[in-house]
Amino acid sequence: MDPAPLTQEPDLAAANERLLVRLGFDLHDGPLQQVHALAQDLHLLRGQVLALTGSDHRDQLAGRFGDLESQLTELHQDLRDLAHSLEPRSLLQQPLPQAVARELKRLGRRTGIATSVERDGAFDDLTASQQIALLRVLQEALSNVRQHSGAGAVHVTLLADEDGVAMAIRDDGHGFEPDAVVPEEDGRSGIGVVGMRERLRLLGGHLELASAPGGPTVVRALLPRWQAGIG
Ligand SMILES: Nc1ncnc2c1ncn2[C@@H]1O[C@H](COP(=O)(O)OP(=O)(O)OP(=O)(O)O)[C@@H](O)[C@H]1O
Ligand SMILES: [Mg+2]
Asked: 24 versus 42: which is more confidently predicted?
């Protein structure tokens, strides 16, 4: 067995987490505020334009402005959700099963995809790093379901026993060939799957990806019970 310096593993996980937190703050202070300012400008413009428009076209123009304003409101909400999801305290406010249910509810609300969750075991002795890693894996898996799967339903299973904790995310979408997903150095291909693997590996666990053209797709995250030096 390779006597890798275990002390570096949590350091790396923590450094990753700090980067995400900073990204969340940058998102909050930059794009989020800009979208807010843009919405206010648009609202002002609406008033000015409508005041100058003859009654023939006013309703039509008001409708167009209304559309744009609701798109901006939705963009603002999405960016806000994203900024909050990058903040790890929000991931630790609730026990794992409730936090998982919250992420699923969010997906259902945005996409109409049916979601369900099933659990077995006790999840209260997970370390903060373990819970954060599992929820980050879930977020990425759900974002893949949303972007790539065409699924109508997602089912999440959570299992905790004396060996560790397992989380499986199954979607009934069209599936893909996992072996064909190879990270390229040119940075064009996605980093989601690589990131999920890495997060789990840093905590002594691993990721299993089962899919095939035609589906379904199952992403399984496995973490061993916490041991000194790896939490
Ligand atoms: N649930 C899924 N259903 C269908 N295809 C999937 C699913 N999850 C992943 N894939 C496929 O695997 C590829 C790699 O996923 P990965 O998350 O690594 O990258 P990405 O989502 O394309 O980009 P990124 O995550 O960096 O934004 C995807 O482009 C997609 O083709
Ligand atoms: Mg992805």
From this structure: 42
